[in-house]
């Protein structure tokens, strides 16, 4: 199919870097590795993991500490609760807490809960596999073979990194930053 055929049907094709629209304009699209929603979720979950207890943390406290819009954070935390990652307690002393230990929640599970599969192409997905429409033979597809290396490396890091690891690394980085400002002349 050429662009003329797709334009006459009014389809939009989105690729990683460019979007080709039915009006024949080619414009770059920016597709972040992680959505803003997932980045905010990871920031909030890092705070919850760092508390080291199952004591609930108020949404307002999380929003202020991490500079996340409160309404957006509320929606994110509700979704994480629906996926079984958080518990919520209403009323005085209420808030959100991790349902599992921080050592049991991987970054991959958070990303999948909010953004879906982490595979760059559907034929590599562990959770939402489907054959790519344009692929004639998956065994010999060069794109799949190269992206498999990327996916394997990414999945290894995301599956092997927990919220406890993220909290620990954040605390270490904060400690290094605070020492840099402790000296004066």
Layout of helices and strands:
Blueprint: H1 3-9, E1 13-14, E2 18-20, E3 26-28, H2 36-51, H3 59-66, H4 70-82, E4 86-89, E5 95-98, H5 107-115, H6 142-160, H7 163-180
Antiparallel strand pairs: 1-2, 2-3, 4-5
Give the CATH superfamily of the domain at 36-108: Winged helix-like DNA-binding domain superfamily/Winged helix DNA-binding domain
Across the major sheet, the strand order is: 1-2-3
CATH topology description of the domain at 36-108: Arc Repressor Mutant, subunit A
Binned, the helix content reads 40-55%
The N- to C-terminal Cα distance equals: 68 Å
Q: What structural class should be given to the helix and strand makeup? A: mainly alpha
Q: Give the overall shape.
A: elongated
Give the number of helices: 7
The average pLDDT score comes to 81
Low-confidence stretches: 1-22
Q: What's the CATH C level of the domain at 36-108?
A: Mainly Alpha
Rg over C-alpha atoms, rounded to the nearest angstrom: 21 Å
CATH architectural category of the domain at 36-108: Orthogonal Bundle
What percentage of amino acids are in beta strands?
5-15%
Strands, total number: 5
């Amino acid at each position: 199919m050429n662009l003329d055929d797709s334009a006459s049907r009014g389809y939009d094709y989105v690729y990683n870097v460019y979007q080709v629209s039915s009006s024949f304009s080619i414009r770059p699209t920016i597709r972040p590795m992680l959505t803003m929603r997932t980045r905010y979720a990871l920031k909030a979950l890092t705070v919850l993991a760092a508390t080291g207890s199952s004591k609930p943390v108020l949404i307002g406290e999380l929003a202020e500490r991490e500079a996340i819009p409160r309404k957006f954070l509320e929606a994110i935390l509700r979704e994480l609760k629906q996926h079984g990652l958080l518990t919520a307690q209403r009323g005085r002393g209420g808030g959100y807490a991790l349902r599992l230990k921080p050592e049991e929640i991987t970054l991959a599970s958070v990303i999948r809960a909010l953004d879906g599969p982490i595979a760059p192409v559907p034929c590599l997905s562990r959770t939402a596999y489907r054959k790519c429409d344009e692929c004639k033979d998956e065994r010999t597809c060069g794109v799949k073979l190269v992206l498999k290396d990327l996916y394997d490396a990414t999945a290894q890091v995301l599956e092997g990194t927990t919220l406890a690891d993220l909290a620990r690394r954040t605390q270490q980085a904060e400690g290094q930053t605070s020492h840099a400002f402790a000296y004066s002349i």
